[in-house]
Amino acid sequence: METFDNDDALWAAKAAILQGAGDARAAFTCLAPRVSRDQAPPMLLVRAGLAALEFDSATALMLAQRALHALPDNAAARTVLVAAQLGVGDARDALPHCETLLANAPDDQYLIALQTTAWRLLGDERYAKVCDYKNLVVPVQLQVPPPWTDMASLLADLSVSLNRLHNPDGHPLLFQSLRRGTETTQDLTRDADPAIQALFRSFAAPIRDYLKIIGQGADPLRRRNRGTWRFNGSWSVRLRSMGHHANHVHPRGWISSACYVELPDIMNDARREDGVLTFGQPSIITTPTLDAEYVVRPEVGMLVLFPSYFWHGTVPFSSDQARLTVAFDAVPDR
After folding, report:
1. How many CB atoms lie under 10 A from the CB of residue 200?
2. Whose CA, among 33, 40, 171, 178, lies 20 to 30 Å from 208?
């Protein structure tokens, strides 16, 4: 930056790294002087708007409007505009922009989440149909795959195999929902470990059953259901004390998941919400504020399946024991 102080692309890269590391205010601060220029590049306005979304919706809205004025067909600028409109309480004006975006990217789960959030803010009856948590969030206890004869033995072997993949000294990944923990970076479906392969084999029957449960229809989940599927990314997360997942969606998914391998003993106390899985609270600022609407209490050996456009996160827990999970996204198999 000292050598190329006027390079907007470098400033944008710095801001992206700062925001990805969890400091949106610093990301915005480093761009503020540059986006104050009348002729600031539109994509620099978008980058600054993305940072501002986390703490100042009105500023994000202004930046998105400037970017969209310069680039009327730019999807990134329009997406920031929608999120900012929800932040300032203008859900009604956000809906036409959602429709424009979804016309070009109908399977983008983040765009679907923005649209359903607008519906919720407006009290639109479509929200309850598309975000039917009671029927679309499905927890199941996994069946033991051969050659294991009981789930406790499989989970014990899985714990050894998965913990081996988690680097306790690893740096946090950029732009991830997890806080105070580690996440594997390789696709677990490609891992040759027998216990990991057995676990993924055990997912097949619950996914097939889930597709039968949801059926077919015109909504964003059911219209893609042709009875076939494939994995589209898989990973493991190991959270330590006070660890949690910030609320998020899986933009390139269809059906998402959480499978519980190790849970701290404190989560056995039904009077506490430590470590529970929550649904419905957006990651973006909204006016009014929206809280979680549905909760699943995890159990060891449980797999939870749900639409990838559902906002979901976890509650922090306090324990010396880890919370070890496996997750994947599934998409229709062409």
Report:
1. 18
2. 178
